[in-house]
Amino acid sequence: MTAAPADPEFTAAPPAPAEFRRALGMFATGVTVVTGLDDGEPVGFTCQSFASVSLEPPLVLFCADHRGRAWPRIRRSGRFCVNVLGEDQIDLCGRFGSSKGAKFDGLDWDLSRWGTPALREVLLRVHGEVRDVHVAGDHDVVIGLVRELEPVVTEQRPMLFFRGRFGVDHDDPAAALGPNLWGWGDHWG
């Protein structure tokens, strides 16, 4: 098989980070907090890149900035809990999305039987073990084997992130939040 000649249409530079963020902001995502325990200390980060991968075996994936503070500690422990946030849990989202402060200070949480911090009043908890980690640019794609699901019975709606904001019902969709918004996930993990 011979290689096709270079097509000038496909030699253009890839999109700049700001353009990439703006475009992919058109895809609404759920928001989670991934937690773990490292040397007895709870750690966690806000994550909007979470999805199911396989039913048999039950696998999920999430993406984490491999330069972040929490993700390397969760990776070292080998276990995690994905806490799916409800739309009114903006405080939790901001707490774990920030690179500043002790995220668990003054926060009520429980230690799961899997040895991971389980946040209270979330929509769902997915307890898992790290199976594979694939480096992808500035993030790691984490594949986890699901050990337990803990759905919480609630009428609460999920937290969605769309066009740089929470929710999808914006009065002014053109008024996107600035590039320094924590929600873009530059330093989650």
| Beta-strand content estimate | 35-45%
Low-confidence stretches: 172-189
Would you report the number of β strands? 12
Task: Enumerate the strands of the largest sheet in spatial order, edge to edge or round the barrel.
Answer: 3-2-6-9-10-5-4
| Largest pleated sheet | 7 strands, antiparallel
SSE series? HEEEEEHEHEEEEEE
* Mean pLDDT across residues: 84
Shape: globular
Rg, alpha carbons: 18 Å
Number of helices: 3
CATH superfamily of the domain at 17-48 and 68-127 and 153-163: Electron Transport, Fmn-binding Protein, Chain A
Which percent bin holds the helix content?
10-25%
Describe this protein's structure.
With about 190 residues, the chain is mostly beta strands. It has a domain at about 15-50 and about 70-125 and about 155-165: Electron Transport, Fmn-binding Protein, Chain A (Pnp Oxidase, Chain A). Helix content is about 15%, strand content about 40%. It contains three helices and twelve strands. The protein has helices at about 15-25, 70-75, 90-95; strands at about 30, 30-40, 40-45, 50-55, 60-65, 80-85, 110, 115-120, 125-135, 140-150, 160, 165. The protein has a seven-stranded antiparallel beta sheet. Strands 1-11-12 form a three-stranded antiparallel beta sheet, with no helix packed on it. The chain has a two-stranded antiparallel ribbon with strand order 7-8. The radius of gyration is 18 Å and the shape is globular. The termini are far apart.
Q: Could you give the topology of this structure?
A:
Layout: H1 17-24, E1 29-30, E2 32-38, E3 41-47, E4 50-54, E5 59-65, H2 70-77, E6 79-84, H3 90-97, E7 109-111, E8 117-119, E9 124-136, E10 139-151, E11 160-162, E12 165-166
Antiparallel strand pairs: 1-11, 2-3, 2-6, 4-5, 5-10, 6-9, 7-8, 9-10, 11-12
